[in-house]
Amino acid sequence: MGGYGWYVWGSYGVTFACLLVEIVVLVKRETKN
Amino acid sequence: MKWFWYASPQTFFPLARTIALWAGAAAVLLALAGLYIGFFVAPTDAQQGEAYRIIFIHVPAAWMSMFIYVVMAFWAALGLALNTRLSGMMAAALAPTGALFTFIALWTGSLWGKPTWGTYWVWDARLTSELILLFLYFGFMALRAAIEDPRRADRASALLALVGVVNVPVIYYSVQWWNTLHQGASVSLTRAPSMAKTMLAGMLVMALAFWMYSVAAAMLRVRGIIRERG
To answer: I need a surface site. Which of A13, B26, B56, B132 has the fewest CB within 10 A?
Structure first.
């Protein structure tokens, strides 16, 4: 990433981790009922 | 389409599941396509190098943060005007996802700002108004949580959503109204985009992916709210 790895992967990593956590929590709540 | 038929939470409940499944599948496919364009098709930026690839999530997340707030305010207004239960539920279902995209826009913007501006944060009009948007989402959710009666919570939070919607044009036009460090819009409906076509394509595909994701998340959450409130 031309020396910008922390910035690029830090952005993509946190973004997709946040979205994944939200969707997992929602799906868990959906399947629990 | 029987709009009023689906205005009832009980009839909307199974439809929300179908919408969530289709929107979720579309979000995954669009995100894969967007990431492929963003990392393998779009060229390296001449000035910003590889750091510019953050815009493929930063700009779509910022668009979604504002768009979701407007949609949330629309449902809130509809609930106040027509006194429909589903409207308040829809507004409540959208708020956490809107807050999440606002946080993502701020986080990715901060990580883009450091290598390009030399700082993670600056109290410029665009950044500050986006931070206010995050607080508006938090306020909306906190107000709902503080009121026990769900119908009263719907009405009170609807007023906050409607007052707060004023902040959305402030965010959008902040770069024109004030002398900000944040650059002006690269994509506009009134003029040609100031970036390569492949860069624009990657950004638009990611925006569609985030949009479909938001629909899926809101539909799943509204099903939970319908179950809780009966």
So the answer is: A13
The pLDDT tens digits of the residues spanning B157-203 come to 999 999 999 999 999 999 888 887 887 777 766 666 677 889 999 99
Q: Which of residues 14-33 of A touch B (CB under 8 A)?
A: 14-15, 18-19, 22-23, 26-27, 29-30, 33
- Which of B53, B104, B224 lies at the smallest CB-CB distance from A15? B104
Instruction: Give the three-class secondary structure for B178.
Output: coil
SS3 content of chain B, % helix, strand, coil (to 5): 80, 0, 20
Which of B35-49, B167-181, B204-218 has the highest mean predicted lDDT (pLDDT)? B204-218
Q: What's the burial of B164, exposed, middle or buried (CB within 10 Å: 0-12/13-18/19+)?
A: buried
B23 touches chain A (CB under 8 A): no
Q: Which residues pair with B45 in a beta bridge?
A: B49
Q: How far from the centroid of its chain's Cα atoms is residue B203's Cα?
A: 15
A14–B104 CB contact, under 8 Å? yes
Question: Does residue B112 contact residue B204 with C-beta atoms inside 8 Å?
Answer: no
